[in-house]
Specification:
The chain has helices at about 15-25, 55-70, 110-115, 165-170, 220-225, 260-275, 295-305, 355-365, 405-425; strands at about 5-10, 30-35, 50, 55, 75, 80-85, 90-95, 120, 130-135, 135, 150, 180-190, 190-195, 195-200, 215-220, 245-250, 280-290, 310-320, 330-335, 340-345, 345-350, 355, 395. It has about 425 residues and is an alpha/beta fold. The structure holds iron/sulfur cluster (SF4) (2 copies).
Length: about 425
């Protein structure tokens, strides 16, 4: 085969990691571009994953380790694709890499530098439920376990050039403030877009009372509270530290009338979380009455039918308010049997999956078509789940729409299959 056989994989979540490992196993050089400092994607924020309820760390860690030691996978963290030119077999890709100011070879992840850094800022990885430092890793167990300096907040880039606390604390001399942002030029035969999704944020959920009470959580916030490496080390409490005796899950809090089964199952997973950590808690589950459960939800129900749950099918939008007793959140809604009002000490608001920033950037950069949900459209979904409108540019994971973990992995394998089979055809 003439020309390059390198492949660019954009996004190091579960789909991007799987695609990279499969390509490397087939002998292909991979450039894995990830715009954060760690690989693993959204799955590393979860304790358990649905539908199998497998331990997320147990599933992802071996993949992360394999990627970081694989000579055929060039991991470019803090990277973003600036431009793509050319066509299948010969794409020229320009990648921006942000300077981290930390030598990944010298660093051993000992934490001494961020322990002494005087700058404290909200940690978006933890849904702003705790803080990080201007030099930091996003959470315990992050891989690579190498911090980076956030110049937007570091004192040296904000008028106090004399700050040297982190470098002075690093006996391995891994910190170098002279590092500069850089650009890389890559030539690749194919590109796999595994840029994932972003959850709807709290702003979308303010009409459901988010921000009004320490007992109201978005699903991603709740996920981090449950996680053993999260801000409470896995203790399920309200944000002011109280253990709830009653909880409500508003499964379709961010619904538009067209509800994804993936989003629904994601919220129903929390039944398992409550069973594990608050087995005596009273649980109410609120579902929009226009939602039709599918096969997957039926399986979920079978699995947790022994968990005592009040299921409430509502019409319109529930009203959520905090009363004079700050521990109690009041939920009022219309049902087929009339209006009901109930209370809970903790409320979890389900989210919807939306195109990530990376997915949106590729949609705009490559002028790809959008599907009804705003993700990358597949022009031939009858014959393949991974095609885009441009030959040689493939879609994996949630870049094409909400997917669970098994489907994301399957799509990654299908995208790799397309890459390998197209190169075989080009060789002929
Ligand atoms: S002190 Fe040095 S070796 Fe330790 S985590 Fe920080 S940069 Fe890495
Ligand atoms: S130079 Fe100072 S402010 Fe900047 S990361 Fe290091 S310790 Fe923090």
């Amino acid at each position: 085969m003439a020309g390059t056989t390198d492949v660019l994989v954009a996004g190091a979540g579960i789909a991007g990691m799987k695609a990279s490992l499969l390509l490397a196993a087939a002998g292909r050089q991979v450039h894995l571009v990830e715009n954060t400092s760690v690989i693993g994607g959204r799955i590393i924020r979860c304790e358990d994953i649905f539908p199998s309820m497998e331990c997320a760390t147990c599933m992802v860690s071996p993949m992360q380790q394999d990627i970081l030691v694989n000579d055929l996978i060039n991991v470019i963290t803090m990277g973003s694709v600036l431009s793509i030119e050319g066509s299948q077999g010969n794409f020229n890709v320009k990648v921006f890499k942000k300077a981290t100011c930390v030598d990944p070879v010298a660093c051993i992840g000992c934490a001494e530098c961020w322990n002494v850094c005087p700058v404290t800022i909200p940690n978006s990885f933890e849904e702003n439920l705790n803080d990080r430092k201007a030099i930091s890793v996003p959470c315990a167990g992050a891989l690579p376990n190498v911090p980076w300096i956030d110049r937007e907040h570091c004192l040296r880039w904000n008028g106090q050039e004399e700050c040297n606390e982190c470098a002075a604390a690093c006996v391995f001399e891994a910190i170098d403030f002279s590092y500069q942002d850089s650009e890389l030029n890559l030539n690749v035969s194919d590109i796999i877009l595994a840029t994932g999704y972003k959850p709807s944020n709290g702003d979308n959920l303010m009409s459901f009372g988010w921000g009004k009470s320490p007992g109201i959580f978005t699903a991603p916030e709740f996920e981090r509270y449950y996680a053993s490496n999260g801000p409470t080390n896995g203790e399920l409490t309200t944000k002011d530290g109280k253990k709830p005796g009653s909880v409500a899950i508003i499964v379709h809090a961010d619904g538009t009338g067209s509800f994804s089964h993936i989003n629904t199952m994601y919220s129903l997973k929390f039944l398992h979380y409550f069973e594990e950590k608050l087995p005596d808690v009273k649980i109410q589950v609120f579902l929009d009455s226009s939602y039709s459960p599918g096969y997957a939800e039926d399986r979920y129900h079978e699995r947790w039918q022994d968990i005592s749950t009040d299921l409430i099918s509502y019409k319109g939008t529930p009203e959520i308010s905090s009363g004079s007793d700050e521990n109690l959140i009041t939920i009022s809604c219309k049902t087929d049997n009339g209006d009901i009002t109930t209370q809970a000490e903790m409320v979890v608001l389900g989210i919807s999956m939306q195109p990530s920033k990376g997915t949106t950037e590729f949609l705009d950069m490559l002028e790809l078509n959008r599907n009804d949900e705003g993700f990358i459209s597949n022009p031939d979904s009858t014959h393949s789940s991974v095609l885009s409108s441009i030959p040689g540019i493939l879609i994996a994971g949630c870049a094409g729409g909400p997917s669970d973990i098994p489907t994301s992995v399957t799509k990654a394998a299908a995208a790799v299959g397309r890459v390998l089979s197209s190169s075989n055809r080009m060789e002929e």
